Amino acid sequence: MNNILTPKACKIIDIKKESNLEYTFRVETDIKVKHGQFLQLSIPKIGEAPISVSGFGDGYLDFTIRSVGKVTDKIFTLKSGDTLFLRGAYGKGWPVEKFKDKNLIIVAGGTGVAPVRSMINMFYNDETYAKSVNLILGFKDENSVLFKSELELWKEKFNTIYTLDKGERDGFENGLVTKHLSKLPLNSFKDNYEVIIVGPPMMMKFTALDFIKLGVPEEKIYVSFERKMSCAIGKCGHCRIDETYVCLEGPVFNYTKAKSLLD
């Protein structure tokens, strides 16, 4: 019998620098995941951290990681061929089946693009799945832009608005993502659309509130967030908010539930 808490030793097969603080690690593994799920990544004697899957394919998973603490700092010292320990996949991902034939609006900020990257690429590779895909992706500045080559590809098939909080870069607007929500053709979508928001808690909160002001029903909004996860199986209680265990019921939530969980 497999122990759900036992990590698997997996080989790093590629490392790509996305920015000065974020790298994408491609890890060889047969672990099966769904869009929006997360795994626990660990290094013996150092610790572990919950990381969303930013991409997957036959025999590999991608993790786009920001160096922000003891575990992630140590992961950044690893090289291709080194071992990283994985357990999972955990949590509830995006309800992709609900997005079939819908007009999709995806608003993400910074590393919040990572949890939606694999799903966006699915829509890119299967143009018939969604009726339309509308992206508003925001980054702090030009040095913080992630997935540069994919951003260019996504422009080819999707309605895209890329923004920088500060500074300028060709192909990018200025200002927070909320500044650009009114540019979306919501009226043309009738009732046939869904909204996905990923980013820091305050960004998700105010983006959702601005969508609601534009007439978007709460039940059409989905968010994803990782809050103080530790065990990932609902035993330690670190991610518990009232009676909700984020690691079990999330990281993807409908806003009707998430509005009581976001700080």
Strand order of the largest sheet: 4-3-7-1-2-6-5
Strand content: 25-35%
The percent range for helix content is 10-25%
Structural class: alpha/beta
Give the name of the CATH superfamily of the largest domain: Nucleotide-binding domain of ferredoxin-NADP reductase (FNR) module
Through-space gap between termini:
39 Å
Number of strands: 16
CATH topology of the largest domain: Rossmann fold
Helix-strand topology string: EEEEEEHEEHEHEEEHEEEHEH
Number of helices: 6
Shape: globular
Largest sheet: 7 strands, antiparallel
Protein name: Anaerobic sulfite reductase subunit AsrB
Pfam family, one: NAD_binding_1
Domain FAD-binding FR-type: 5-96
Short structural description:
The chain is built from six helices and 16 strands. The chain is an alpha/beta fold and 263 residues long.
What does this structure look like?
With 263 residues, this protein is α/β, with parallel strands linked by helices. It folds into two domains: 8-90, Elongation Factor Tu (Ef-tu), domain 3; 96-258, 3-Layer(aba) Sandwich (Rossmann fold), CATH 3.40.50. The chain has helices at residues 70-75, 114-125, 148-157, 201-213, 246-249, 255-258; strands at residues 8-17, 22-28, 38-43, 47-52, 55-57, 60-66, 83-90, 103-109, 132-139, 159-164, 173-174, 193-198, 221-224, 240-241, 244-245, 252-254. Strand 3 (38-43) and strand 4 form a beta hairpin.
